[in-house]
Amino acid sequence: MIIAGIDMGVQNTRAVIIKDNVVIGRGAAPTGGIDRPEMAMKAYEDALSAAGIAAGDVSKVYATGKGKFDVAFADAVLTETVAAARAARFYFPEATAVFSVGADETLAAALGRERLISEFVLNQKCSAGLGIFITYLARRLGMTMAQAAAVDVADACAVNDGCVVFAELDALSMMNSGEDADAIMAAAIKAVAVRAATVLCDLTAPVGDKVVLVGGFTQSPAFLKALSSCMGREFLVPDDAEFCGAVGAALAGAEAE
Amino acid sequence: MKGQIWETRPLECWNLAKEIRRSYDGAIAGKDKVLGQGMSSFTLDWASAFPAIRVVEDNPVGAMMAAQDEPFARKARLASEVRGWGREICGYHNNCWGAQFLGHTSDGNPFPEREFTVPFPCVCDSHIKRGQQCRDYKPIARWTNDFTMYIGERDEKREEAMLDHRNYNTLKMLNEMEIVFGQKLDDEMIYDMAKSYTNIGDIRSEIAYYMTFKPTPLTVKDMYSFFQLRPSPKMGPDVLAKFWESLRDEVKWRVENKIAAVGTERFRWLEAHPPPWHYLKYYRYMEQYGAVCLGSQYANLRELLIEPDGSYEVRSYTEPAFSADMELTTREDAVRFMTTPDARSPRHWKIEEYIEPYKLNDMMKIYNCDGALLGLWRAGVGCTLTRKEQAIRLREEGYSVMVYEGSQPGDRVDLDEKRLLEQLDTWMESLGFRKFED
Ligand code: SF4
Q: Among A199, A220, B128, B360, which lies 20 to 30 A Cα-Cα from B75?
C-alpha cells in the first residue's frame, strides 16, 4: 500500500510517500502565506515525482502540522504530537521519548509500551515561536540560516530565556553595545535551548535514555550542542529529521484506519 | 446522533433552574440594600434572613464580568492594576476591584459598594484579600468568619473547641449586625434556612453518588449552573430545596434507566477546577470525542466523604450529629445545626483541597474516570497550587493527565483558546480517540 504524509509547519512544508514502510519520495516547499494550499500541493507533487508515481497510486494522504487544515486534499489530519511520536518509533524502535522543536511549536512526549504516548506536553505561550525568533534574528544580523546554525555556543552568554520577547530585547541591547553577530546569535540560541528544554522537563513520566529529537532545529548544530549541554544528555536525531512529521502522520494515520 | 452509545434526553429540571435564577438576579438589582462582601456560603444564607442585607461576593460578580463583557473586564483590571494590584491577583477580584474604582458596573449602573465585610481564612492570598480590599477602600464594618480546620489526626476535643469558637463568632456577628444596621433577623426564616441548607447538602451528595454510575446522568457543566442557584427573598428558601429534590429524583430515575447526559459517553474525566467561565463550551467540544467531565475538586470534592483508605460514604450534613427532623427553637440551635457537620470535613473545599490534594486520585476511582485535566493559571495562586503534584500522583496510578495553561476562571487573558483545543485534540488522539464526525 502506498500512503502519503504532509507536514505543513509554520515556515516549511514537507511531504513524503511511503510504500510498505519505506520512504520512497520526499518533497519540500516553503509554507508561504495565503497560498498555503498551493504550497502543500507543490510539496506533495515533488514527493510524487521523486517517488516516480502519480497521485492516483496513493491510497490515502494524511496531514499534520500547524497548517494541516490547509491541506485540502488530505483524507485525514493528525496532531503533531502523535505524528512526531510515531516517527520517533519508526526511526528508533527503542525510543523512550520524542522531543520536537520547530519554528512555532515545541512538544515533548514520553513513549510507552502499551500506548504509544504515555504523556505529552505542548509548549505554552512562553516557549512559542522559538524557530521564528532565530530566523528573524538571523535576518536582522545579516546572517544566513546556515551561518546561524554554525555559531560557537560553547562559551556564549545567554540572553533572557523567559520568552522570545525578552530574548529579543536582550539581543537588541547586545547589538546596541556593539557585540558581534556571532556572539549575539550564540547567546540567542543558548536561551532558546534553555527555553525548549523546559518543555521536556515538564514531563512527569521518566523520559528514559533514548530521546529522539525532531523538528526544524535538528538542522542547527549550534542548537543541538546548546541543548545537549544544558540538559546534560545526548539526543537521537534521525537522518530524515525534517521529514519526521510527514512520516509520522502517514504511518499513524494509516494505522488508525 | 453519530457515535451514540446510550439513550439520552434533556433534563426536565432546567426550567425551574432558570426561573430561580431570573428571580435572584431581579432581587440583587434592587438598590435599597446593605451590601456585604467576603462571607462564606454558610453565612451567605444567613444574610438573606435580614430584610435588607445582601451579600455581593467578588467571585460571581468578577466571573460574570469576564464571561459577559470582556472589554469592560479589561478596563476594570487596568483600573485595579494602576492602583497597585498586580496581575498575580485572582481574576475575580481584580475585575471587581477595578469596577469599584471605576465606580460602575458594565451596564453603567453604580458599582454596589459594600457596607460590611466578613473575611475568612484561606490559603490563597487573593481570597483573603477580598475581605480587606473593600475595607481599605472605605471604612466599613468588619466581622470574621472561621473554619473548623486543622491538619493531622482527627481530634474531637479540638473540633469541639473550634466549633464553639465559630458558633460564638457567628452569633455575635448576627447580633451586632442587628444593632449596626438596625435590622431584625428573622429567626423563623433562619430555622427554615438551616434545614433547607443541610437538606440541599444531603441531596447534592446523593446526586454526586449518582454521577459515579456509567453512563453519568448529569455532567459537571449542568452542576456548575445549578450550584450557583440562590433563592431570592421573593421565592423563599423552599424553592431551592424543591429544585434539588426534583433534580435528585430525575437523576436517580436516569441512572435506573441508563439515560445518559451525553449519548456518546466513552471517556470520563475529572478536573481540578473549571476553565475560565466564558469557556464552558469546551465541554461540548469534548463530547465530540465521547468525553464527559464528571466534576472537579471545586464542584464535588466535598459531596462524598472519602476516608484515608479510599473508601467513601455519601455525605450527610445532618446525621450523625443531629436528626434531620429535629426542631430548631433558638438561633444558636440553627447555627449549630449548620456548622457541626463541618467539623469532620469542612465544606470549604478550597482549604480541604490543599490539605488533601491527592483526594483527586480517590475521586478518579469513585467516579470511574479515565483521565484528568488540570489547569495551571497564571494568576490566582489559590486555584493553581498543588496541580503539578496532583499530575504526578495521578500518573503514578496510571491515569492519563493533561495539564494546560490559562487564566484563573475569573479572567480569560491568558487562556489561549485555540491552543487549548489543540491540546485537547492531542490528548484524545494520543488515547486513540477520533471525533465522531471525522
Ligand atoms: S485564585 Fe482561587 S482561591 Fe484564590 S481568590 Fe481566586 S478563586 Fe479564590
A: B128
